[in-house]
Design goal:
Blueprint: E1 4-5, H1 23-51, H2 59-89, H3 98-131, H4 133-139, H5 142-160, E2 167-168, E3 171-173, E4 176-178, E5 181-182, H6 184-188, H7 190-236, H8 244-280, E6 284-285, H9 291-305, H10 310-317, H11 319-340
Antiparallel strand pairs: 1-6, 2-5, 3-4
Helix pairs in contact: 1-2, 1-9, 2-3, 2-5, 3-4, 3-5, 3-7, 3-8, 7-8, 8-9, 8-10, 10-11
Length: 341
């Protein structure tokens, strides 16, 4: 049986699933439409609420969260809907025309990279705000946030443009090219192989390690500062039970750990599978029921889920966001009630 290359399947779906149905693809047939039905409105609602500017957080943080919501929305549209759902439910459609298929993967990778690295940028911004008081005033501003967001978006859009030239038609029917098949030169060329390594290390290995490291350093700093401030507070006022400064930072800290912690949890399987195949040099699988393929797809399912969770994190951790969300949910019912009067 033909061996299927796995090294470039970690981040996107191949045409093979169009012609083969496995247990994991049957799970995906339910999972991805559900994910789209939840993630699409969730990210749109987040964009509306954040754009109002009444979230209760600084403008710099709000800009990061807005950019992350846009990137997550693009991941849901391009990767979940145009890629996965299209593969599962529409074996042949206009999106499988090779030029459109190639463009689709460029958009998928650009959206995914932007979503991941904007999470890194947000985590670093909060790390500076909490742990680097001298740098905080200069770095943690809305101007810096805008520059970082622009650089990340342009950099990864440019980086992923090369994917358009990675594919060739799988079939040519009546002079019309169909589907996307990776060119043989992608595997043979030293330049392409090197770029593939760099590309995979950049997303998700480096972001995963950066976010994990920044969170560890942030937790360590918070513990040291909390102990110091508690001792100082006891010396100054034994009757005082509240520290206004620490309470003001509490929401930002909770938001940081919720967003970055969710990312680490949902990307852990994908990163583990990547390290496994690179270390063991397991670059292929024989069937779509192979445990390695199932692990790949499970990691991918968990990975794209991270593009749909931030709305619910905000609703749980941020009181003002929750109030805005309740108001939006009630709005249609209020309008219907007014029309019926």
């Amino acid at each position: 049986m033909a061996m299927v290359m796995a090294s470039t399947m970690s981040r996107h779906h191949r045409f093979s699933q169009k012609m083969h149905r496995s247990t994991i693809s049957q799970v995906g047939a339910i999972y991805y439409p559900t994910l789209a039905a939840i993630g699409l409105p969730a990210n749109l609602v987040t964009l509306v609420i954040l754009s109002r500017g009444s979230f209760g957080l600084t403008k710099g943080i709000t800009r990061y969260l807005l950019a992350m919501a846009v990137a997550d929305l693009l991941v849901v549209i391009t990767d979940v809907i145009f890629n996965r759902i299209n593969d599962l439910y529409f074996p042949t459609c206009f999106l499988d025309y090779t030029p459109l298929c190639s463009l689709k993967f460029v958009l998928v990778y650009a959206a995914l990279d932007s979503s991941v690295w904007l999470t890194v940028a947000f985590t670093f911004d909060r790390f500076v705000a909490i742990c680097c008081q001298q740098l905080k005033r200069k770095y943690c501003t809305q101007t810096t946030a805008a520059v970082v967001i622009g650089v990340v978006s342009m950099l990864f859009s440019a980086k992923n443009a090369r994917w358009y030239f990675t594919y060739q038609p799988l079939y040519v029917i009546n002079n019309v090219p169909w589907f996307c098949d990776v060119k043989v030169s992608f595997y043979d060329s030293a330049a392409w192989v090197t770029f593939d390594w760099i590309d995979t290390i950049l997303t998700p290995c480096v972001p995963f390690l950066l976010i994990l490291t920044l969170n560890v350093l942030t937790v360590r700093h918070i513990m040291v500062v909390s102990v110091a401030r508690q001792g100082l507070r006891v010396q100054r006022n034994a009757n005082s039970r509240h520290d206004p400064e620490m309470q003001n930072r509490r929401k930002s800290i909770i938001l940081l750990f919720a967003v970055s912690g969710s990312f680490l949890l949902l990307w852990a399987t994908h990163v583990t599978v990547f390290l496994y195949w690179r270390i063991t040099q397991t670059y292929s699988y024989e069937t779509l029921e192979d445990p390695f393929y199932i692990a790949l797809e499970t990691g991918y399912m968990s990975q794209v889920l991270s593009s749909c969770t931030n709305t619910y994190i905000y609703a749980v951790t941020q009181t003002k966001f929750r109030e805005q969300l309740k108001s939006m949910v009630k709005c249609p019912f209020v309008l219907v009630r007014q029309l019926m009067k």
